[in-house]
Amino acid sequence: MKSDSELQRDVMEELRWDPKVDHSQIGVTARSGVVTLRGFVPTYAEKVAAEKAARRVKDVKAIAEEIEVRFASDPRTSDTEIAQRIVHVFTWDVTLPDDKLKVKVERGWVTLTGMVDWHYQKDGAQKAAGKITGVKGISNLIDVQARPSVVDVKDRIMAAFKRSSVVDASTINVIVDGTTVKLGGRVHGWSERQVAEHAAWSAPGVTKVEDNIVFA
Q: Are strands 109-116 and 137-140 parallel, antiparallel or unpaired?
């Protein structure tokens, strides 16, 4: 187990390493595996990237994310302009069913609603909206439509685990309850846990994943 100072150093190095993050305005503290990120970034996408970078570091148990989005060049982007830009991005993204998505913007905070067939579409809509200048935060309320399927969801997920070079399938438990997948067991780090969760979301018909995996 790393000391607090070692963990702080490693997280700061990971932020410097990530080209999507401007680390110059981000401060890092660490205590007993809990990392706190404070500071300012110019876009919501960069805020998300900073959190993901911290999660990649070994021995990070939890993250307190207190980064604020501040705009240096375009602080007066209206809510209407933000909404129009998001709708435009959705229209040009062939992976998103733009006719099923709705956008609401209030003081820079975006609320996404609607219905999609797959979780990657819900995730993709949030990522696309997060890249728009002026977005301070996102509430992703998009629903994933339950898709009846004759395939064995559990077998598909376990097969994905076995194909992965990161996940040890023998240490992870999978329970399928309707359209909900419950993951349990042990992994060695954040990356393995994230790959396992992604595999569960990728199974057809899955609308919810309960990740109860712990670190070994």
A: parallel
